[in-house]
Structure formats: C-alpha cells, structure tokens
Amino acid sequence: MQKEHQIVKAVYLAKTDSQKADDLIRAYIPFIRSEATKFLSRPCDQQDDEYSIAMMAFYEAIMGYEREKGIFLKYAAMIIRSRLIDYSRKEAKHSGNISLYEENSNEDDRTLADTLADDRDIIEETVTREATCQEIAELSAVMSEFSISFSDVADNCPKQERSLLRCGAAIRYAAENKDLLQEMLRTKKLPMNRLVEGSKVERKTLERHRKYILAMLIIQTNGYEIIRGHLKNVLRKKEGVQE
Amino acid sequence: MKYLVVECHPAYAVVLDESGKFIKTANMHYKVGDTVTHIVEMNLPETKPKPKISFKWINTLVASAACLLFVFIPMLLFGGRTVHASVYMTINPQIRIDVNEENQVLDIQAINDDGTLLIKDFSYKNKDLEKVLDELLDLAIQKDYLKEDGKITLSLDTEDDEWLEAKKASLDSHLHSYLCEKLPYVTVVVIDSKESIPESSSAHESENSFNEESKEESMDVSEDESSQTPNDESMDVSEDVSSDIPSDAPVEKPNNSRPNHPPHHDDDDDNDDDDDDDDDDGDDD
Description:
The complex is a heterodimer. By secondary structure, chain A is mostly helical. Chain A has helices spanning 2-16, 18-27, 29-40, 49-64, 72-93, 112-115, 122-145, 150-156, 161-176, 178-187, 192-199, 203-208, 210-219, 225-230.
C-alpha cells in the first residue's frame, strides 16, 4: 500500500498546486488512455475528443478526491467512465451531425470545413488570433504581478447569474473611473473601498470574487481591446442577454 | 456563445465567455487565443470556503486539554485528601487524627475502646486540627476521661520535619492555654511519634497508656504541667529510647518520674524507688 500512499500524497499536493497537477496528470496519461479505450472498446488516442474528456475527468478526480473515497485510481476510473458516458449521451443528441473534418465525398482533398464559407478571411483570422494571443499573454503577465492566474480566476468566478451581474456593476463603475484603475495598477491591490462606495455592491460579494474582479479590472485598462471586444456584453447593463 | 481560450493545460483549458465568465473546460485541442463555440465544462465540486485545516488540529488541542484535565483534576481534588500528618492523642482513650497539608482534619480513628466512645457522634468535617483537639478535649472532660491530674499526650507522626517542629511547639502551648482555664493540673506532652510508637492499649486511669516501648517522657505523674517542655523531654527520651535501658534519664525534672521506665513499670505514684532503680526491668509487675 506504499504506492497508494504516495499517490494520495501527490493528489493532495496537486489540489492546490497547478503545476503539480499537470505533472501528475502527465504521469498517468497511459492510465487515462487505457481507461478511455476500455470504455470505447476501440483504441483511444490523443486526437479523439474522448481523450480530452478523459483527461479532464482525471483532473476532476484529483480535485474531488478524499481519502474516504477509497483507492484513488479506482475513483479516477469511475469519474472518467462517468464523464465519457455523459459525453456520449450529449453527442448522441447531436447525432446526425457530421464532423466538420470529414473528408468530402468529392475526393477533393478538402474537408467539409474548408468548403464552408467563413465569416472572415482565413488570414485575417490567423492575424487576429496572433494578436489575441499576445493580449492574453500580456494579461497573464500583469495578472501574475497581482499573484493571480487564469485558473484561480476561473475558480473564483461567480457561478450564479446574480453574482455575475453584481460584479459586472462594480466592473462598470471602475471602467468609468479610470483613476481607480490607475490606482489599482499602481498599488497592485484592489481598491475595494472605492469600488464598494461607487458601485453600491455589497462588500461581501466583491470580496468573495476578489480575484475575478481584479482580472476583469485589469482587462479594462489599456491594451486589451480584443478581449474587451469579446466581452461586449459585460459593459451592457442587463440588456446583454447571453445564452 | 463564443468562448475565448485564455489558458491551456494538458487536462483542461480556461475559457472566457462573452458575459465575462471564466470557465474551466476540457482541452479539445485548443490553443490560446482560439475562439470556440462548443465547450465541455468541467464539473468541479462547488468551491465553498473550505473548512480550514485548522479544524483538525483543534480536535487534537481539545483532546489534549481534556487529557490534561483528567490528569490534573484528581490532583487538585484529591491533593487535599492526602494525609500529611497523623496526631495520636492519648488521654486514656486513644485516637488518631489525620490532617492534610492545610491542617484540615481528614479523618479520626479510635485506637482503643475508650477512644471509640469518645469520638462517637463526633464530626470532624471542615475543622482544623486545633479545633478538633479542643473539641475532643471538651468531650473528654465531659465524658470524664480527662480530669484534673490527667495527662494528654500528643504523638505526631509525619514525614514533614518542619511541620513536626512547628506543631510540637504550637500544639503544646495551644493545649496548655486551652486547658489552663478549663482544667488545671493537666499534663500535656507533645512528641514526635518516631520516638514512641503508639499502640492500642486498654484504658488506664491516668496511667501512661502508651505502649510499653514508649519511652516518652510523658510523666505518669501528672503533677507537672507547663513546666515541662516537651521538646526537651523528647530529646531526652530519644536518647533513652534507643538504649531501652530503664536507667534513669539523665535529665529529669525533679518532680517527674524518670522519663524512661521499664515498659511494664507501674506509674511512679506507687514507687519511690525511682532513684534506686537502675535495673528495674523485672522489678515490678
């Protein structure tokens, strides 16, 4: 049981350390792949969506595991299987759809996706993607000055619509008061008092989603046009209906 | 809904939707900067504020505190019940009084039948040594065990020499002053029990009812009272005790009979042989 003990220790470390989590997952890729293969009854490799699902499931297992749940790998296998079942059900709903990447029966050597009209030029798209990548990299860098990462922010993000909107109000207030943003960039801290005062949002809510709000505020500063463009709905008060 | 991929890991990705929500999803071959429309959202346990790990060590803390209490409470409660010293009081009735460090009386035991009668119905609860002695003396007088010319011997048994020395003096003077109003001509003797071992004996009227071996200087002759200094006598006695020779003690109060006399020697009222008796061993009785 020495091995199990080591695994459990690694799992608990991975819960809070994102780098360790990645390492642990990488170490168990063969395991993950074999579990997916078992489920699919056909070889599962990196190209398959199921592979991605199974990997995500393993990550979920790391986060959700407690010693009381028994042997970790058995628990992980269960989660992987569970997710793959969910996925296959969802896919079944969309059955009849053909993959965009299937080869055209015309033997054109072009896939279906290629023949579909794009909204934008491919080149343009690539350029945009490059620029987006750049912005995101900068954002990530600034965020690390505040000691937050995207994963942190995702964990900290409001899940309920109500909280999301309330935070949105605070973000809007900050966007309209550039000096607040400047202060934030300068002090590397969230100017909570001003936010609470200005946006009239409950302090408790803002505190609970501190990291998220920090990230969103940084985005409101100079240099993140593309990202802000993506977020067009955030700045719209309540009328922005998202599905 | 469009999702902007902002971070990629082997097992998941983080995307940003158009409403400003950051979401962890499966990494379906994403690259940072991609915009996708179809995601598989990760299913994570609701991140409530985790119960701090400190909860667990609080358990240990409380458990240790409880254990310590279990260890110390008995000590605190029962510390007062440990017998620190025993005082054997002999008039005729002989009783033992146990006291704790605080001079509270823990117990009284009768050593002879008269003793039993004496302490019958007597309560020592919450009384200190002196009070109990006083009350017992009163009882003894009342029940006629102690009369004029009587003698009271207190033999102190304890490991605590300081206590012994202090008590010897204080009890002696205490009894003397208590009695001199009530009953004159009573002999009071306070000694260290190491010098004499009390044993139960039948009641003797104004006799030295201590055991044979006790060479305590408690004079049978009760003429003497306060002139005696128990301390001195005890010292004398001790010299003699060891020898067990019925020789006259070097120090002798004139009125008193010799501090040591052969075990079964009658009281000196009868004999005037005192000075003659060098080997009195088998002389009388």
